[in-house]
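Below is our example:

___
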Amino acid sequence: MNERQRFHIDYIFASAGLRRRIETVRIGAYQDWVATKLSDHAPVIADFAPHSSAG
């Protein structure tokens, strides 16, 4: 495989409550995932704020 060849990108599905807590979203680098044959997918990586249990 090479970087110009097609590869899969994963998805993240989240509820409205979880979407409000998204801090960052990024796509895993081709070189780290596909070129090393760890996966044929470039993962979507999301960081979420901690859930607030105050109430």
User: Anything to note?
Assistant: The chain has a mean pLDDT of 83.
